[in-house]
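Retro notes (design track)

What went well: tokenization of the new backbones is finally stable.
What didn't: we kept losing track of which sequence belonged to which structure.
Fix going forward: every design gets posted as structure first, then sequence, in one message. First example under the new rule, 241 residues:
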């Protein structure tokens, strides 16, 4: 007989979970790092190790017997049946025999839809989308970021935001309201970067380079991105911080 219910949501940056007793009492809240093979060093082998660590920690600190626990685990990277079978085997090796494993985007449908069907798109570190139709059929779409045309998620959206601001400030591109959002957000965090850039060893002095912009930046400076480059740009470029 089930005495506890364990719900886990594993994404690209973190894993959260909750353990409830049969009567609905919160027993434990779990905070863990990523448990997705797409983000762990070693891929599937790294995932196997991480799952043993996480489930072992949950079991020991709550004194659980896994035969008393029913688990639902929404996990980023469970995009097809082969992945579900492989990772499900890892979970069973941890002693968790009753576990419904699915893509993490399916959790949003069950949480938000009163009817139990719908579509959910998750855009965290990575991206994924799932749908459940009115007959209960499930379809999940995942990808490998830009390599598979999967242009969404925090990694891609963040890069695109920086690109748009860069285009306006340094290349005469179209106006974007993101410029002012960046200015407000980074005011306290990055205000000292131009001074640090000017004083760093190997970095050209803006006074000597004439503020020549990207063409005057060393290879090392280009790799650091738009904000490190602020120190070599006059005028509008400085307004970003």
């Amino acid at each position: 007989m089930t005495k506890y219910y364990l719900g886990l949501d594993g994404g690209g940056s973190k894993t959260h979970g909750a353990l409830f007793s049969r009567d609905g009492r919160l027993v434990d809240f779990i905070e863990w790092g990523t448990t997705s093979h797409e983000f762990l060093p070693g891929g599937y082998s790294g995932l196997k190790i991480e799952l043993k660590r996480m489930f072992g920690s949950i079991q020991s600190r709550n004194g659980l017997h896994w035969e008393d626990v029913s688990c639902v685990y929404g996990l980023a990277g469970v995009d097809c049946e082969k992945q579900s079978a492989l990772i499900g085997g890892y979970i069973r090796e941890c002693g968790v025999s009753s576990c419904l494993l699915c893509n993490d985007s399916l959790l949003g449908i069950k949480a938000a839809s009163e009817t139990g069907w719908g579509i959910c798109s998750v855009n965290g570190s990575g991206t994924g989308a799932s749908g459940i139709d009115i007959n209960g059929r499930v379809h999940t779409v995942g990808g490998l970021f830009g390599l598979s045309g999967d242009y969404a998620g925090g990694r891609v959206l963040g890069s695109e935001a920086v690109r748009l601001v860069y285009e306006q400030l340094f290349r005469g591109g179209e106006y974007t309201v993101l410029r002012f959002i960046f200015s407000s957000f980074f005011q306290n965090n990055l205000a000292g970067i131009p001074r640090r850039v000017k004083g760093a060893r190997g970095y050209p002095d803006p006074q000597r380079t004439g503020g020549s912009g990207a063409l005057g930046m060393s290879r090392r400076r280009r790799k650091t991105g738009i904000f490190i480059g602020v120190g070599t740009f006059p005028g509008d470029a400085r307004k970003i911080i």
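Added context from the reviewer: Strands lie at 4-10, 14-21, 26-33, 69-75, 99-102, 118-123, 127-132, 138-141.
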